[in-house]
Design goal:
The protein is of the alpha/beta class. The chain folds into 3 domains: 1-66, no CATH class; 83-220 and 423-563, FAD/NAD(P)-binding domain; 231-417, 3-Layer(bba) Sandwich (FAD/NAD(P)-binding domain). Helices cover 25% and strands 23% of the residues. It is built from 13 helices and 30 strands. The strands form 8 sheets. Strands 5, 6, 7, 8, 9, 10, 11, 22, 23 and 26 form a 10-stranded mixed sheet that branches. Strand 24 (445-446) and strand 25 (450-451) form a beta hairpin. It is globular, with a radius of gyration of 26 Å. The protein binds flavin-adenine dinucleotide (FAD). Flavin-adenine dinucleotide is lined by residues 87-93, 112-115, 120-121, 125, 132-134, 139, 179-180, 214-216, 220, 263, 427-429, 460, 462, 467-468.
């Protein structure tokens, strides 16, 4: 989008990339068609037209209207309209953009992203060693083969996402440095109006027919750190991994990492060796799965020069089948699964007592994600004496470090609080529906992606136990199918609504705390929507069920209501 206020005197300049179809439908405006003045690309046309009043230009199904509030001048507020607006350019938002372009090529769309570049989670987290904890054959998209080792660094994931953007020319649809603060639905206008602030602090207004929330589930600007007594007295440095200072010098330093999840398990081996010593301080242990960071099947197929597309699909199936086996084992024979996981650790650390004390959780496997420790690197760091584990509770911070409830003191130069996220359900966007502020907790999930009383909106919330992206891809298909279904029906509004037969249905938390209970979800259950006890109101977190159900979900079962 280009803006000219000076030489054209109250003109709006819109870069439409390819003006086909747009130009011919622009009635009633004085218009000039010219080559793009900045990019020097003759195929890239810029339409210039005069607006005297707030106008809306309808380009048919691929509507790309531009509205000006009053007579525009340089820096004037401008409203752009898109069929679909995607919030967030993380793995979900980029996947959504791909699916939309692929399956609904007539729809105009934009992706708005707070950060200055794509990647979401993988750009926000820059701590040493940052890597995935699920394999990239399933965390990668269905449509783009992964060709490296299964567990990947953030840089490798960003490279992969960058290729998806480049190969599919998605960049033209993404606006970085656009932070959305409010979303207002108007039933009269049958559209959302969103306010965003750009890097310069200017307010921008967007309208869209359908809102695709790909904003993730936690606040990117700040991680979760509990308040401990005496924190201000500590004379060293306290760091949360989510806001890692790039200039943090930890060479030779005594480091205490508070936490026992995937982040701690990633950080500790990455710091060990360079740091003086790294201590993992945990309240309670976590299940870890060691194992080499290779996929032998993929390597064999590659050696046979099998096409990467095939390898991707075959290895996905293999990984999913193994994941399913582990999940079943977790519920049917948890003791056997525990033994299997401990065996991997015992191969590296020959100390049964240590494993019993620090690596034997009190909960059943799979209530929280089993953290992957590729090539057992955390345990090798412990075996080498560069790192150690302490299971205890914090009494308070002291100038020297941490006083534990047991009476012991852990001395530290640096304390890293790998204590998790702040749940951020709707991207800190204030939602209003027809003048009523939205209470998201009062809504009931439709298949874990749409919500009762919220029109034309879908949210991508991926899997906990399987890779997030498996669900992001499936919701991509679902949203595109729904948009096409609405076009076929000639409707412009869809809103999930409990049917008379659903009114007595019990309403349960978004996730069952007995089934899955990480801290950030438990802390935020009252912010999350509810689920029902029967379809289509359940949020099952069950890939195997959803891969069958979602593609054939009856869009006319009465749970989705449509308006013209
Ligand atoms: C360190 C770490 C490792 C992980 N590893 C795995 C793994 O291996 N496998 C797995 O399945 N899951 C993993 N997860 C979970 C992971 O967050 C998701 O899998 C996935 O990356 C989420 O992608 P997303 O695009 O939905 O959300 P995010 O990655 O959170 O991206 C959301 C984007 O939306 C933008 N945004 C939010 N609000 C607004 C707003 N108001 N306006 C504009 N833009 C906004 C954000 O800036 C961000 O870029 C991991 C999480 C972390 C933190």
């Amino acid at each position: 989008m280009l803006w000219s206020g000076g030489s054209f005197d109250h003109y709006c300049v819109r870069d439409v990339g390819n003006a086909n179809g747009c130009q011919s439908r622009m009635h009633g405006h004085e218009e000039i068609v010219t080559n793009h003045p900045l990019e020097g690309n003759p195929s890239c046309l810029v339409l210039v037209w005069r607006f005297l009043l707030t106008q809306r230009v309808d380009f048919g199904s691929g509507e790309c209207a531009v509205r000006l509030a009053g007579i525009p001048s340089q820096g004037a507020i401008m409203t752009e309209h898109f069929d679909v607006l995607i919030v967030g350019a993380g793995i979900s938002g980029i996947g959504g953009a791909y699916h939309l372009q692929d399956q609904c090529p007539d729809k105009s769309f934009v992706v708005l992203e707070t950060q200055s570049d794509f990647g979401g989670t993988w750009r926000t987290h820059t701590y040493p060693g940052i890597r995935s904890d699920s394999d990239l054959y399933t965390f990668g998209y269905r449509f783009k083969p992964w060709t490296d080792a299964p567990i990947a660094s953030a840089d490798e994931i960003l490279r992969y996402m960058g290729e998806v953007i480049e190969e599919n020319e998605l960049d033209q649809h993404i606006r970085y440095n656009h932070s959305i603060s409010s979303a207002v639905w108007s039933s009269e206008d049958k559209q959302w109006t969103l306010q965003a602030t750009d890097a310069a602090g200017d307010e921008k207004t967007f309208t869209c027919s359908f809102l695709w929330m790909c904003q993730g589930y936690y606040r990117h600007s700040k991680g979760y750190t509990p308040e401990w007594e005496g924190m201000d007295d500590f004379s060293g440095t306290i760091v949360h991994p989510q806001t890692w200072p790039n200039d943090l010098d930890y060479a030779g330093k005594n480091i205490v990492v508070i936490g026992s999840g995937a982040t701690a398990a990633t950080l500790i081996p990455a710091l060990a060796g360079q740091a003086g010593h790294v201590t993992m301080l945990q309240r309670s242990p976590t299940y870890f799965s060691t194992g080499r960071n290779v996929n032998e099947l993929a390597d064999t197929l590659r050696a046979l020069e099998i096409d990467e597309t095939w390898i991707h699909e075959i290895v996905r199936r293999q990984t999913l089948a193994e994941g399913d086996m582990i999940t079943k084992m977790a519920f049917e024979d948890p003791e056997a699964l525990k033994e299997m996981l401990f065996e991997g650790i015992k191969e590296i650390i020959d100390d049964e007592e240590l494993i019993k004390e620090h690596f034997t959780p009190h909960y059943l496997p799979w209530r929280q994600r089993i953290a992957k420790v590729p090539d057992g690197d955390l345990f090798h760091a412990i075996a080498r004496g560069e790192a150690s584990a302490v299971t205890d509770h914090i009494e308070r911070f002291t100038p020297e470090g941490i006083l534990l409830k047991s009476g012991k003191t852990l001395e530290a130069d640096i304390i890293i609080t790998a204590t998790g996220f702040n749940l951020n359900v709707l991207g800190d966007i204030e939602f209003t529906i027809d003048d009523e502020p939205l209470d998201f907790h009062e809504t009931v999930s439709y298949r874990g992606t749409m919500f009762t009383g919220i029109p034309n909106m879908a949210w991508v919330f991926g899997y906990f136990r399987a890779s997030w992206t498996l669900r992001a891809d499936m919701i991509g298909d679902f949203v595109c199918r729904l948009l096409k279904h609405m076009d076929d029906k000639g409707t412009s509004v869809v809103v999930p609504k409990l049917r008379p037969e659903d009114n007595d249905m019990a309403q349960l938390p978004w996730v069952d705390p007995e089934n899955f209970n990480p801290g950030y979800i438990m802390r935020g259950l009252d912010l999350l929507p509810k689920q029902g006890t029967k379809d289509p109101w359940r949020h099952t977190q069950d890939y195997w069920n959803e891969r069958k159900e979602l593609p054939i979900a009856d869009l006319d079962d009465g749970a989705l209501t449509y308006l013209p």
